[in-house]
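I would like you to sit down with the record closing this message with an eye to the fold:
=====
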Amino acid sequence: APYIKYSESTDKLYIFSVNQVSIIKEKELDESPSSNPHITNLFINNQKVNYIDSMSNRFVLPYDQNTISFEFSNFSFTHAQLNTYYYRIAEKTDPGSKWIKARDNTIHFLNLKPGKYTLEVSSTNFLGIAGKKNHVVHFEIRPPFWNTWWFYSML
């Protein structure tokens, strides 16, 4: 079972489990039964990155850091196994892209090609109530230097 600690000095809720620590800012908590998703962990090439404190909702990676995993939570812990997550990813902002139901609270993207991506995550809680806001992350995988316009212009 996780250990939960609230710090009044930082207005943060700390949730400790065997393999991870999740940090939630009190202002992000919602007393309503809706369930807004939040990215809780980010893995780049299978290495954990401290996403919550060190990254915004935008980041840029080199071409060889193109295997990315996101873990997310809607912080609805009542019957958490009944929470449902959906995501869509597009190379450009594409409101027509299809939603995909996630098998659990983690999604993996292997060997993404260079480009600009938008990931959007939504969720429902055990009552089937959707969150009011989706979580959106924009990221870019840069091409290797030998596949850039300036390199070709030098040839």
In short: Helices lie at 51-54, 149-154. The longest helix spans residues 149-154.
